[in-house]
Amino acid sequence: MNGNETKIVVRYNETDKMGIVHHSQYVNYFEIARTDFIQQLGISYREIEEKGFMMPVLGVEVHYHKPAQYDDTLLVETTIGAYDSIKLTFDYKIYREKDRKLLVDGSSSHCWTDLSLRPVSIRRKNPDLHALIVKASKQA
Amino acid sequence: MNGNETKIVVRYNETDKMGIVHHSQYVNYFEIARTDFIQQLGISYREIEEKGFMMPVLGVEVHYHKPAQYDDTLLVETTIGAYDSIKLTFDYKIYREKDRKLLVDGSSSHCWTDLSLRPVSIRRKNPDLHALIVKASKQA
Amino acid sequence: MNGNETKIVVRYNETDKMGIVHHSQYVNYFEIARTDFIQQLGISYREIEEKGFMMPVLGVEVHYHKPAQYDDTLLVETTIGAYDSIKLTFDYKIYREKDRKLLVDGSSSHCWTDLSLRPVSIRRKNPDLHALIVKASKQA
Amino acid sequence: MNGNETKIVVRYNETDKMGIVHHSQYVNYFEIARTDFIQQLGISYREIEEKGFMMPVLGVEVHYHKPAQYDDTLLVETTIGAYDSIKLTFDYKIYREKDRKLLVDGSSSHCWTDLSLRPVSIRRKNPDLHALIVKASKQA
To answer: What's A10's DSSP letter?
Structure first.
């Protein structure tokens, strides 16, 4: 694994009447893992927003292999799939910690924008942040 | 009933592994009913925010009598409990439509603020809105 | 449009600090539209579960074009993309009602299972339900 | 503090368009803190359900003092407020970690039931669990 690993414990309110985690929740798990990934680069997503940039989601894809259950500890492995200075793709694999079974995988694509949701080139607007992501995407 | 009645159909993602609606959801149902109540006064909560006012929640209380289930049609009866020009309380009763059983009741208290969450007197800042709410609170 | 159209009004709790609907919500909107689609076939998803069948999600894909905002009325157009007696795909287009702009599109794929999440052939187990879906998929 | 302290980091999807945590989320935070409290007694809520018992919510009360924001680290202090062998009340105080300011407090009341939501005396049905809770409630 060349990416980042994030631990998430399934909450009761994330389950549904099937007795398993509701399928929409994994999109939130991806987001938690993605912001943790960015944090590990040395800058929080909160600080990125404070600097005037956002990373709205252009698309998301989720593939469900096995259901997660209440109180399961999940490990989300996040890597950068593709990056130019405007668009950015993250890939995710969600494992159940106790037996390391793959439960879910997927990806999300994003673009850099300002706080009014207008696309920006992060390479020009924030070269340091750009450099961090280029470095992280090479490690993947 | 002197208040307003709002119809809500329970969504699948609002259930939990007990097979019933998760208890936190009723706070959202209260909010839907409250904004519908305001809409019926002749102004939407969206417009209120566009005019520069908000109505953040100071407190909420929920009493659970019977569980709602997936696909149940609920009727939420909303009335104004108390009002001065700064604080505002709503009372809610949630019934199951098919047998008119009371499932949940509760209340929420609010204060008027500007968009920076500073308290304002709505009587002075927006007398028309104040008048609408006074009228609605007298009908309760 | 040969499919079904479902109206959804954006709730306050579905927005996030960007001021727009949180991207995970659209997966819930798809689910609401899908169960409404099934309802229009003449059987509710609740009854399907009561008969002992479920339709868990194998995969979901969402493409975000424009953000929905608080209080927007959305129209979700649902069609069946593909169907054999085990797997079933739905396609969705989410429009903003007031200007009919396409905000989001996507799809979800499902398989028929029993209540223990074991795959079943619905053609053999429930020919009537199978016939309804075959008919709906031909109209698409 | 004689109770239990649970750390929660605010997730992006828990915020709303006010830019702060949506008020319904604190009911989920209470639940996370309550199950963590029980876990610290030496038994998980998951195991309690596996033994055939549940602890549905009879009522909840939340008082909002200051808003939590995205990425804030929260500390939830949980204590048992009252206990007989059927009913159980938890009290919560939610602090912002960085300055130890009280953001929210509240309580939830519960009764012990079997998996069909019928009330049970946990003292008779599971004396060990009863003893754990009596011990914890004396420490409060």
So the answer is: P
Nearest in space to D60 (alpha carbons), one of B105, A113, A112: B105
Closest-CA distance of chain B to residue C32, Å: 7
How many interchain CB pairs under 8 A, B with D?
A: 52
pTM, two decimals, is 0.95
pLDDT digits (tens, 9 = 90+) for B31-69: 999 999 999 999 999 999 999 999 999 999 999 999 999
Helices (H), A12-126: 25-41, 45-50, 122-125
| Ordered per-residue pLDDT tens for chain D, 140 residues | 567 999 999 999 999 999 999 999 999 999 999 999 999 999 999 999 999 999 999 999 999 999 999 999 999 999 999 998 889 999 999 999 999 999 999 999 999 999 998 999 999 999 999 999 999 988 75
CA–CA gap between residue B33 and residue C16 (Å, rounded)? 20
Q: What is d(CA D137, CA C99) in angstroms, rounded to the nearest whole number?
A: 58
Residue B16's SS3 state is coil
Of the candidates C63, A137, A83, D107, the one whose C-alpha atom is nearest the C-alpha of residue B61 is D107
CATH superfamily of the B4-139 domain? Hotdog Thioesterase (3.10.129.10)
Dist CA C140 CA C56 (whole Å): 22
| Two tokens, residue D1 | 């503090």
**Residue burial D62-95, b: 16+ Cβ < 10 Å; e: rest:** bbbeebbebbbebbbbbbbeebebeebbbbbbbb
User: For residues D9 and D3, what is the distance between their CA atoms, to the nearest angstrom?
Assistant: 20
d(CA C76, CA C9): 11
Residues of C with CB under 8 A from a CB of A: 18, 23-25, 27-28, 31, 54, 56-64, 67, 117
Contact A56 C63 (CB under 8 A): no
- Closest by Cα among A94, D57, D82, D25 to C15: D25
Nearest by CB to residue A61, choosing from C31, C54, C61, is C61
CB D70 within 8 A of CB D15: yes
A72 is catalytic: no
Of A56, A61, A67, the CB nearest to C18: A56
Per the CB < 8 Å rule, is C17 touching D19? yes
Nearest chain C residue to D12, by CA: C16
